[in-house]
Amino acid sequence: MTEPTVAQETGVQVGPDISVIVPCYNEVGNIGPLVAALERALAGRRWEVIFVDDNSPDGTMAAVKALAQQNARVRGVCRIGRRGLSSAVIEGALSSSAQVVAVMDGDLQHDESRLGALVDAVLDGSCDIAVGSRHVEGGDNSGLANAWRHALSDGGIKLAQMILPVRLGDPMSGFFALRQETFARIAPHLSGTGFKILVDLLLSSPQRLRVQEIPCGFRARQAGESKLDALVMLQFLALLLDKLCRGWLPLRFLAFASIGVIGVGTNLLVMQALRALGAGFSVAQGAGTLVAMIVNFMLDNTITYRDRRLRGLRCVWGLVLFMLVCSVGALANVGVADMVYDQSRRFNEASIAGALIAVVWNYAMSSTVVWRL
Ligand code: GDD
Ligand code: MN
């Protein structure tokens, strides 16, 4: 492939063959060095890099825009009110019009000199998706920060290999390339949660993808720090569960219902404590319910709706709305439980019926009114 050429008949510069999609959050120190590295790695090809930033507080987007003013190959997408590596990659890839999209991290841990091999493997038709792999002959994973990260990565690999339709040495890789049309075809089926967009692609594709692993290194991070945390690990497990349930149980609902169970436990704990201090039932029940609602709201805001997290005044207003929604849910719970008990005289069934109505009501209203999906 040749340098950017100008179409003879129109005189207009033609678009890139390759879009490098880089999800970034607080990567201001890596943007410049990464663009310089891509200039070297992709010299002679028609390429662009699309940084997808989630409104990083460190000024990543300003650095991207400054570079873009001097270099037409640099593009930036800034997302407000949304967070997440996988969803950032999805939005970046869908904004590309190139033949091939390549995905890599923005912290120079992936070896950009392997991009040409990934792209050529896709273009020559030998595979649908070419993966920069640390776990094939010639690969190297020494850049992972410590033994804990190695254990985590190995554990994730084993879990993913149990349900992936193809055998892959490094399904945890975030460094891969595929045709843009292939990505666009799979995109509507993606979960788009967490970090592991490659696992999401392989599990979401309606057709089995032919995968080729190309050995590559994984360097130590150059600047900034890893964003991988316990929540990302939870999201990875939730992704696998979502795919196993074939999407029948929305991830969010699973998380919301699990946190609801924590709320019931919180309610009971607070009630027992207040009863032990001599409080009457109504005071204990009221206080337990209040504390449970606050705990549930905080957990839902951090986990269930992480990508829509409310902050500042919006968080306070969200808590008020959440308590209103849950109060109506509590009334519906009691009303339905009473009705079922009157007809069946079965205590447990009545109680479960009431709880189910409440959790479905609370989830539906929280998703539409509080976190506004
Ligand atoms: N837009 C956006 N939003 N980008 C993010 C977010 C986010 O919420 N979280 C992380 N990123 C970006 C980082 O800025 C970086 O460019 C890239 O995603 C990888 O994030 P790291 O925090 O560096 O992840 P890691 O070092 O633990 O790498 C692991 O995950 C990567 C992504 O799957 C390893 O498993 C890598 O192999 C893998 O590529
Ligand atoms: Mn990294």
Please describe what this structure looks like.
- With 373 residues, the protein is α/β, with parallel strands linked by helices.
- It has two domains: 6-244, Spore Coat Polysaccharide Biosynthesis Protein SpsA, Chain A (Alpha-Beta Complex); 251-372.
- It has twelve helices and seven strands.
- A seven-stranded mixed beta sheet has the order 3-2-1-4-6-5-7, with helices on both faces.
- β1 (18-24), α1 and β2 (47-53) form a beta-alpha-beta unit.
- α1 (28-41) packs parallel to α2.
- The longest helix has 33 residues, at 312-344.
- It is elongated, with a radius of gyration of 25 Å.
- The two termini are 42 Å apart.
- The structure holds guanosine-5'-diphosphate-alpha-D-mannose (GDD) and manganese (II) ion.
- Guanosine-5'-diphosphate-alpha-D-mannose (GDD) binds at residues 23-25, 27, 52-54, 83-85, 88, 105-107, 109, 153, 172-175, 195-196, 226-228.
- Manganese (II) ion (MN) binds next to loops.
Keywords:
alpha/beta, elongated, binds manganese (II) ion, 373 residues, binds guanosine-5'-diphosphate-alpha-D-mannose, 53% helix, single chain, Spore Coat Polysaccharide Biosynthesis Protein SpsA, Chain A, 2 domains, seven-stranded mixed beta sheet
